[in-house]
Amino acid sequence: MSPPAYDRLHDNTMCPHQHSRDDSSLTDRLSTHVGDESRLLDRARRASTASELVVAPVQLHQRNLQRRLREAARPQGGFAFTDPESIGRSVAREAGGTTRSLDRIDRLALLGSLSPSESPPSPDDPGPSSGDARPTFRDRLGTGGDAGARHVEQVRSTIESMTNFHPDRIGALRAAARERRPPVDADAAALVDAAVDAERALRDRARGAVSRVDVLRRATRDVDRTGGAAWTAAYPDIERVSIVGVSTLSAPYVDLVCAVLATTTVDVELHLRPGTGPFLDERLPALLAVDGPGREVFA
Amino acid sequence: MTRSGRLSLAAPLDAPSCPAAEIATATRRDEARAAMATVAALHERGVPVRETVVVARDLDPYEEPLFRAAIRYGVTPVFWTQLRVTRTRPYALLDALCAALDGERVDPETLLRPLEHRWAPAGAEPPGATERTTGAGATADESAAVAGGSDAEPGESDAAPGESDAAPGESDAAPGGWPVEPSTVQAAVRSLPAESRPIAEWTDAVDDARVRRYVSWAAAHAGDDPRPETVGSVLGDAVGAYRAVELPRTNARDSPALLETETEARAVVRAETLVAQVERKYADRLSDGTLAASWETVRELCRLFATQRPGRREHSNATAVDVMEANDVWGLSVPYVIVVGLVDGDWPRATAGVVPPELQETVLTGDGRTGVVAPRTEWADGRDRDHFADAMRAATRGVVLTRHRRTTGGDERRPSPYLAAVDADAVTRAERERLTGVDPELPAPIAAMTPGAGGGDA
């Protein structure tokens, strides 16, 4: 079933799998490998500038790779090690956007302060407006304190990882929810509502980004809307991006890959793991079929 | 998605390319003993300790038994914890202080962030301080003291920093007391222009007396080239004030089980140890000339130490065995990997997610429009599978898989389904007893993994 994006004639870049068939150079630039990190390590070269960005979401994986290279006496100059959130900050910085974001402790505190049982807000802190949130969001917060806030934060970040708050994905998730039999249909819909409301409530109160994923999302939009200039400003010498050590492909990461593939000439290598690799490999084309990576349902 | 695609998440994993042995013990504690005895016995046979690694899916239930077993067999363990300390408020306070004091200019948000993380001046007392010695306050101190005792590793930790002095007459005269309420801090941030200035220039721009007091204090301690003693007292005082002011507040609003208080008390103790370590390391590096003196450097050191147990040295210790969680073994290449906890329900373990299972299934399959929604493979034990595969792949000479058969309560534990894919040689009961005896002896299947025959000294 082709999504409506096919028919749009916007500037919005579409992800590689939806471009016209002649433009196969984009899909050529994305490759997936399962359990084959030696492929990366074998590329270790002496170099004064890094041309390959090795993206490892888990910090310790970065150190493990570096330790491997050190023990094998291989040069590391050709590699720059980073994680997705740092990419977000680098691109945002170059594009003049905010790199500051709330951390989890901040978000819990903010969400906790939204509980209806709190004392009336002081004049300095206007608090939530009356039309702010639907009942379900408040219900989940409970009577204040950390437990309710933690639950809402978990819901928010789960839905964020599944959708990156992209309108197409939120829409698809809501549609999938509607098709479930009761009471799952209502529960699932309420879940999506709560996540969107929580993110919105945090956006209204945060100065800067709501989370590091939010910074990454903004950076993805920057890359998309500047036709890749925002990426090149942050990573002028990078020719290849290798993503390693992931067990799941979250929507924020997918959108970043999407934007980079569509607007730059950078190669992307996705290193998957034996347990989940075959599954993710098959799922990947559908995940990439999103229009306007980084776009948000709030806009 | 094809049926085979979806089912691939349940398919058996590839067997390791090197030999595997399996040890089944009665209890988890026996399992920990078998694991450490194996490390010791391999060492006896000439295998350097750094050529072995012990891997658990979740270190929490294994840390203490592994630690005790290691001592019993004369092995020094080094536990690689996850970045949990960095999720605690006391650590966040230290991190924010370093950021606020670094460099010549700072923006309001960075400057005031320590206040959001409950900074208070040395000697500050919470409102109602006289009640601290009774009831709730006393319990908070007790938990902190207990936490301090259990966290100290024998022979390894630095001298514990002293308690903060509550000097009479130093409590703040301004109404409201400490810490400053988040709404006041946020209001202060919003009222100031979003630009970077030297700290001293911010002092007069702030209204609230307490915030102003903090800013003056920060101006006095900020800038380039902090001395180690300054670092120690600035950070140490901050943690001390946190212990004095914030801990009782957590205690007062906690549930009867005091879970949050205990966690926070542990975080405070960790932070205290961390400050002592950072000060010492910073002083060392400065005198070596290997570090530039700055608050940003201090911040990095805090981050480094926060990811390790107290007392662990930064460089990998060649005479200590690494004990880590399965997520951290990815990408490593080590001759002998000992994998503990291969019990169904522990590894894999179902995680409590928020998405209903029916919706999980739809997103995993991703047919039609749902294809754009990103599934979380943990819904189908994705991470546990990958971690097990990583542990197998890391080993170059051999894998030792251990599991236990019953809980302390006597309930049966079944073997992990992941074991089905591995053609492992079972270690017999007699071999196991000789392994965990006074003089550990390698079971035949494990001995066969070592290079060369015979048990000559290395």
Topology:
The complex is a heterodimer of chains A (299) and B (458).
Chain A (H helix, E strand, L loop, with lengths): L24 H4 L1 E5 L3 H4 L10 E4 L3 H13 L7 E4 L1 H11 L9 H9 L22 H7 L4 H18 L3 H12 L5 H22 L6 H14 L3 H6 L5 E4 L7 H13 L3 E6 L4 H12 L11
Parallel strand pairs in A: 1-5, 2-3, 2-4, 4-5
Helix pairs in contact in A: 4-10, 5-7, 7-9, 8-9, 10-12
Chain B lengths: L2 H5 L12 E6 L2 H17 L7 E5 L3 H13 L3 E4 L9 H13 L6 H9 L19 H16 L30 H10 L17 H13 L6 H26 L5 H30 L6 H12 L13 E6 L8 E7 L16 H9 L16 H13 E10 L20 E2 L2 H7 L8 H4 L11
Parallel strand pairs in B: 1-6, 1-7, 2-4, 2-5, 3-4, 5-6
Helix pairs in contact in B: 2-3, 4-5, 4-9, 4-10, 4-11, 5-7, 6-9, 6-10, 9-10, 10-11
Largest chain interface and its two residue counts?
A-B, 73 and 67 residues
CATH C-level label of the largest domain in chain A: Alpha Beta
**Low-confidence spans of chain B:** 130-174, 309-315, 453-458
Instruction: Sketch the major β-sheet of chain A.
Output: 5 strands, parallel
Would you give an account of this structure?
The complex is a heterodimer of chains A (299) and B (458). With 299 residues, chain A is an alpha/beta fold. Chain A folds into two domains: 4-98 and 213-288, Rossmann fold, CATH 3.40.50; 104-207, no CATH class. Chain A is built from 13 helices and five strands. Chain A has helices at residues 25-28, 38-41, 59-71, 84-94, 104-112, 135-141, 146-163, 167-178, 184-205, 212-225, 229-234, 251-263, 277-288; strands spanning 30-34, 52-55, 79-82, 240-243, 267-272. Chain A has a five-stranded parallel sheet. In chain A, helix 5 crosses helix 7. The two termini of chain A are 26 Å apart. Chain B has a seven-stranded parallel sheet. In chain B, helix 4 runs antiparallel to helix 5, helix 6 crosses helix 9 and helix 6 (136-151) crosses helix 10 (259-288). The model of chain B is unreliable at 130-174, 309-315 and 453-458 (pLDDT under 50). Chain B is an alpha/beta fold and 458 residues long. Chain B folds into two domains: 3-81 and 314-447, Rossmann fold, CATH 3.40.50.300; 86-306, no CATH class. Classes of the chains: A alpha/beta (299), B alpha/beta (458).
